[in-house]
Amino acid sequence: MSLIPLSAGFLPLLDSVLLVLAREKGFAAAEGLDLLLVKETSWANIRDRAALGHFDFAQMLAPMPIAATLGLTPLAVPMITPMILGLGNNGVTVSAGLWKRMADAGAPATLEAGPVGAALKRVVQASGRKLRFGVVHQTSSHNYELRYWLMASGIAPDRDIEIVVLPPPLLPEALGSNGIDGYCVGEPWNTVGVKNAGAHIATVKASIWRSSPDKVIGMRAHWAEANSEIVAGLIRAVHHAARWCGESANHAEIAQIMSSPHYLGLPADLILPALDGRLDIGGGVAASVPDHFVPYERAANFPWTSHAMWFYSQMVRWGEVVHTPERARAAAMTFRPDVYRSALAPQGVPIPVSDSKVEGLLAGPTEVAATRGTAVIGPDGFFDGQVFDPARIESYLEAQKAQQ
Amino acid sequence: MPKRDLSILIIDENRSRASIIEEGLREAGHQRVLVIHDVSDVARTLQAAMPDVVVIDLENPKRDTLEHFFSLSRAIQRPIAMFVDHSDEATIEKAVEAGVSAYVVDGLKKERVKPILDMAVSRFNAFARLTRELEQAKSELEDRKIIDQAKAILLRTRRLAEADAYALLRKTAMNQNRRIVEIAQSLVTADSLLGPEE
What we know:
Chain A: Keywords: Cell inner membrane, Cell membrane, Membrane, Transport. By secondary structure, chain A is α/β, with parallel strands linked by helices. Helices cover 41% and strands 20% of the residues of chain A.
């Protein structure tokens, strides 16, 4: 039987790994798919070429399909996200000079968002110039998480510090040449900053917003509807890749595969730490962050509509879109737990039966009702203890407005 | 009142390609064409040049940076991607295939922008063709060098005349269903392995 060709764009980041493994370990072929992966140079290219249909689907920043559905981006066509490519993976890295000032101001080398943010606030207050932080894209989880962390730490982005956009591979270099003081990016580019630019990882996504999505599969809604069998096959292939990726015994081989010039083009020893959750955070300090990157466990691939709603709330917060109930609904419906469930439930995979959850209620791993038995999810929520209930988004937006 | 000449900004890290596009636009009568090679300079440039149209190559990893500058910039009217208009998908398709992206100040009539974009696309394609031809010429030159080396080996070891040496290479290639340059390359490699130590 000949395979169905399926093309996808990706950027050189660790969390392209599930797509890479789906291809390299034969999971896609087992579903009858010939997965062709095209390395791109910018999220703008991914967005344009996915919208034009040059790619059948793409690895996207979680907020990208939402922005497209809401018509906020060029060439906007309605997009859906039927699957998440893992939880976590981002970090906030600062230059050696900034870290020294933060440490002097009381920042612990523990990656804890709260105390590290408090120290950064003291540095920002004492700084003679505006510090500058880089993120990978305006419509990115990185931008929203960095802003959330700063704001909750008493630092107003745009007013107290400047945020610029640079592609991931250029961030460590920009830090080294003093163009920026810090950045929020996915692995391996925090580790690269530590190794090549003497930088320090200050905190991680896993501390700012626990068990939260970063990259997703994004595809045109019309295409997905017309090709539902292919979409289901893709979900199954990536599901198997994710399970395989979650086995620590496979990490060394995965780092080897990802180091190829087709994918990251970096030595395997810069890729392995994030997979293992053992980060060299700079200054010879090794930190264990077991949930730094979660490719499979804790229903990592399940597209919670509440996650989509949180990204939407931040688009509203930072003035990218004006809130209406219709837009909120459209944003939530961009994430498609129903598509995910219908592809995998027949295989006996336990999948949460609820589409949405209140962010910040799970203090630890918790059993929830699943299509078969139970599934374990969490912990979840934000470092400052704020709870996000998507059913009460208006009051959440009000509270955030008051904070600013 | 005659229409104001549009201000066009070209951003391309490839200097030769940038000048080919610039030249094309000037020939087409556009006087206000500015070229920069690094997106990092763009904030200043946007203020100074107030471009109506910005052309950038798709391979540029700083497209995201540029779009962010646009969203921040208050100095100029907010430019939007040419792609925003779905009515001309063929143009968009051609542009993306050629590797061009463009941003246009909101409100500009499509008839004014399309010729600029068409020019950029055709120059991008012309440049790609030139590059390809250059690569081909280079590789043909390489091939000829290797064949000459192989002929020299045959001249030396088999004491053949030059024409006969070439004929022998060609005949061997035909018999083995391979290219002459491949046979020549094997011979050169074998000679370097078996030949006298230098």
